[in-house]
């Protein structure tokens, strides 16, 4: 008789591990990078037992967390930060889209995948891809490849940016601006900036959300160039919520009594969001990207990161 196969792990084990890690993410010892790392470890070992749940609620949790962060910001300071980042935003968005088109053709990638990865890098990662995908009629596999590419690079950026910022002795203002320009998703932008300091967090959040509004003109331009008609582009509503929270904190004194509690809840929500994102990055997701789309994503990211860093540090 042959030997029996090893028993499968008890189906309760992944749920217990998930629960313990989630509870840890709500403690003061968990930071955004730590939460993302724990999610990645979970995904590569016992697996995420609540894949459908985390996928469904990650975006919503991030959006509510971003709104909560608005209660810790002053509108006047935010306007000043937005003005500073405007030129960087315009130049980097259109420069990235143009470079992506050229590199995509050189790599012989499909037009749709090239445009999705370029938009994700240029504007705000998964949100931009989700908005532009239906406009170009992207297939599920094309969406998966683009999302997988930016999610992997988001994880790398969250760990890499704070040490680079400290090594170069970047100010809070400089680092916040760099994060908003050079990191794809809002979640990783806020996570990296939060790890660097509260001032960097305010600058990064404000500029990144202003940058996210470019989803609308870019999606409309995409519809024109891809010759699509009757296109509906959704406004990122949570940005309006963030602005409203910031205005309340600035002009309604009573709001400041609860503002710190809301900001703290928002930061906890962000930590949990990054844990969910890490838990969704399975090895299968990473392998599905393929070398050429990943090469496009890496090249675009390295260019925008290095050029923006040089300009910010030099000015």
Helix and strand topology:
Layout: H1 13-25, H2 32-44, H3 51-69, H4 75-106, H5 111-122, H6 126-136, H7 140-167, H8 172-182, H9 186-196, H10 198-212, H11 215-225, H12 237-251, H13 255-279, H14 283-287, H15 291-314
Helix pairs in contact: 1-2, 2-13, 3-12, 3-13, 4-5, 4-10, 4-15, 5-6, 5-7, 5-15, 6-7, 6-11, 7-9, 7-15, 8-9, 8-10, 8-15, 9-10, 9-13
Q: Could you walk me through the main structural features you see in this protein, from its secondary elements to its overall organization?
A:
The structure is a single chain. By secondary structure, the protein is mainly alpha-helical. It has one domain. Helix content is 78%, strand content 0%. The chain has 15 helices and no strands. Helix 5 runs parallel beside helix 15, helix 6 packs antiparallel against helix 7 and helix 7 packs parallel to helix 15.
């Amino acid at each position: 008789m042959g030997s029996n196969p090893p028993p499968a792990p008890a189906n309760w084990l992944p749920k217990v591990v998930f629960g313990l890690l989630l509870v840890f993410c709500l403690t003061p010892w968990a930071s955004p990078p730590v939460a993302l790392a724990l999610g990645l470890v979970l995904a590569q070992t016992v697996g995420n037992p609540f894949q459908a749940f985390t996928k469904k609620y990650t975006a919503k949790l991030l959006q509510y967390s971003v709104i909560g962060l608005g209660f810790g910001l002053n509108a006047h300071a935010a306007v000043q930060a937005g003005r500073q980042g405007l030129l960087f935003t315009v130049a980097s968005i259109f420069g990235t889209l143009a470079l992506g088109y050229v590199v995509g053709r050189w790599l012989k990638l499909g037009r749709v995948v090239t445009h999705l990865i370029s938009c994700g890098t240029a504007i705000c990662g998964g949100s931009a891809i989700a908005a532009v995908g239906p406009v170009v009629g992207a297939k599920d596999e094309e969406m998966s490849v683009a999302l997988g590419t930016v999610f992997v690079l988001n994880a790398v950026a969250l760990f890499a940016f704070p040490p680079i910022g400290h090594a170069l002795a970047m100010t809070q203002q400089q680092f916040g601006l760099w994060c908003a320009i050079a990191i794809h998703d809002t979640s990783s932008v806020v996570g990296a900036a939060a790890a660097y300091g509260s001032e960097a967090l305010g600058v990064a959040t404000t500029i990144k959300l202003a940058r996210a509004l470019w989803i609308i003109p870019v999606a409309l331009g995409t519809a024109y160039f891809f010759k699509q008609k009757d296109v509906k582009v959704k406004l990122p509503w949570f940005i309006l919520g963030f602005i409203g929270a910031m205005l309340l904190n600035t002009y309604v004194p009573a709001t400041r009594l609860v503002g710190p509690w809301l900001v703290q809840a928002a930061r906890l929500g962000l930590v949990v969001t990054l844990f969910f994102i890490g838990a969704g990055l399975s090895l299968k997701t990473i392998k599905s990207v393929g070398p050429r789309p990943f090469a496009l994503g890496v090249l675009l990211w390295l260019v925008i990161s290095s050029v923006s860093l040089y300009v910010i540090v030099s000015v």
